[in-house]
Amino acid sequence: MISGSSNLKPSVCDAQCVIIQDLCESVSIESCFDSFDGVDPLSDVVTAMRIGEPHSGRVEHHAPFGWQFPAVDAAGFHVVLSGTCWFLPLAADPIALRPGDIVFLTGGCTHALADDPATPLRPAAASLRQVNPRPPRPNTASASRPETVLLCGAYFLDRSRAHPMLADLPEVIHLPAPETRHTPIGAIIDLLDSELAADRPGHDAMLRSLLDALLLHILRGWLDRQTGTGWSAALHDPAVAAALSAIHGSPGHGWTVAELASHAGISRAGLARRFTDLIGRPPIAYLTWWRMTLAARQLRDTDTPLTVIARDSGYASEFAFAHAFKNEFGQPPGRFRRTNPPVQPPDRDVGRSTGFAARVVTRAMESEE
Fold first, then answer.
1. Interstrand relation of 102-105 and 75-82 (parallel, antiparallel or unpaired)
2. Are the C-beta atoms of 322 and 333 separated by less than 8 Å?
3. Does the N-terminal peptide bond of residue 64 adopt cis geometry, omega within 30 degrees of 0?
4. Helix (H) or strand (E) holding 229
C-alpha cells in the first residue's frame, strides 16, 4: 500500500520483499516480456534511448499551493504519496490526484500542480529535471504536517533520433491509484519513498534500480491498456513480437524476411503485412533504421573504430556501411562523428557524483514564503 511514511512496519516490509523478489525475477532492463526468445524490444529501446541517470526527489506541499512547471527536455513524473492535489495540463481538463496516482509526462510538457484548480499559479522553484532540495527547515513540534507529499523527477532521453515506440506515447499518461495499489509498482513507490528519506549504504544503486523498474512498469501499464494499434499492438502480436525480438537480439545478423518469418512461425507475406501495418515500415526497413540508429550513437558517443561499427551493424565492408549510413543521415559516418559531439544529460553536475537523486526532502511551504 502506498504511504507517505518511510517507517514501514515489519509485516509490510516482508510483503514488499516478496513482491520485489517476484518483480526482480520478472522485470529487468534486459528482459521485460519473458515470452520472447531474443531481446525484449521495450527494454532494448529504453536502454538505447536513456542518457545519464534518472533524477528524483520527495516534495512536500502545504495548502494553498499552485506551481507552474516549464517544459523540459526529459520525461517527467509525479507520484502522489499522501494527500491530494490537481494536475493541470496546459490544454486539457484538470485531473484530480490521490495517493497512489501516477502522472507520466512523456515529453516533459508544460503543466501545473495545485491544491485546487482555482488557486493562482506561480513558477515552480525547480523543473522536473532538476528537483533541487531547498535547505531543510528544522523539524519542530510546532511544524504542521504537509497536506500533500509527492515523488517527482525525470528520466533523461536522447531525442535526437527518438524511437517510434516512444513517439507513439501520449503527452500525458495517468495511472490511477486502483492500478498501482497492492501491485509491484506500489511496492516500488514505497521503497523509493523510503530510500529518499535516508542516505544509507547502497543508496545510489538502489535508486537507479527502482527508478528503472518504475519507468518500465509505467510504460508496460500503458502498453497493456492500448493493444489495438501501433507499437502496443505489435508487442502483443506473437508473430510481430517474435520478429522484433530477433531483430533487437541480433541487429548485426543478415536477417531476411524469410528467416524472420520462420522465426515468427508464419509466412513471409503474412509477416511482411502484419509488421508493416503495425510498425509503419517493412521488417528489413525497420532493421536498417535500428542498425543506423545504434551506429549513429556509437559514432557520436564512443571512439569505436569505423570497421568495428560496420561489422556490428551487419555490413561486410566500411564502404557498404558508409553508403547505407549516408542514405539514412545525408552525410558519411566520418563527417557525422566530427560534427556531432557526445550527448550529455542536462544538469549533469546536479547532486553527487554518483547520481542525480535528491536525498533531502524539498519542503514547498508557500504559506511561509
1. antiparallel
2. yes
3. yes
4. none
Do 29 and 46 meet the contact criterion of CB atoms below 8 Å apart?
A: yes
Burial per residue of 38-57, b for 16 or more beta-carbon CB atoms within 10 angstroms, e otherwise: bbbbbbbbbebbbbbbbbbb
All three cell numbers of 367: 504559506
- Our CA dihedral for 28, 29, 30, 36, rounded to 10 degrees, sits at 70
User: Which one-letter DSSP state was computed for residue 252?
Assistant: T
Burial code (b: 16+ CB inside 10 Å, e: under 16) for 291-311 equals: bbbbbbbbbbbeeeebeebbe
Return d(Cα 70, Cα 123) in angstroms, integer: 8
Contact 322, 360 (CB under 8 A): no
Burial of residue 85 (CB within 10 Å: 0-12, 13-18, 19+) is buried
54, 195 contact by CB (below 8 A): no
What's the alpha-carbon Rg for the chain, to the nearest Å? 22
C-alpha of 351 from chain center:
20
Q: Are 138 and 104 in contact (CB under 8 A)?
A: no
Burial 245-277 (b: 16+ CB within 10 A, else e): bbbbbebeeebebeebbebbebebeebbebbee
Q: Find out whether 13 and 6 touch, Cβ atoms under 8 Å.
A: no
**Per residue in 313-355, pLDDT tens?**
999 999 999 999 999 999 999 999 999 888 765 544 433 323 3
Rounded Cα distance, 268 and 291, in Å: 21
pTM as predicted: 0.76
> What distance, in Å, lies between the first and last C-alpha atoms of the chain?
33
| Residue-wise pLDDT tens digits, 264-306 | 999 999 999 999 999 999 999 999 999 999 999 999 999 999 9
Alpha helices (runs of H) in the chain, residue ranges in sequence order: 10-26, 41-49, 164-167, 184-197, 203-225, 230-236, 238-249, 257-264, 268-279, 283-301, 306-312, 318-329, 333-339
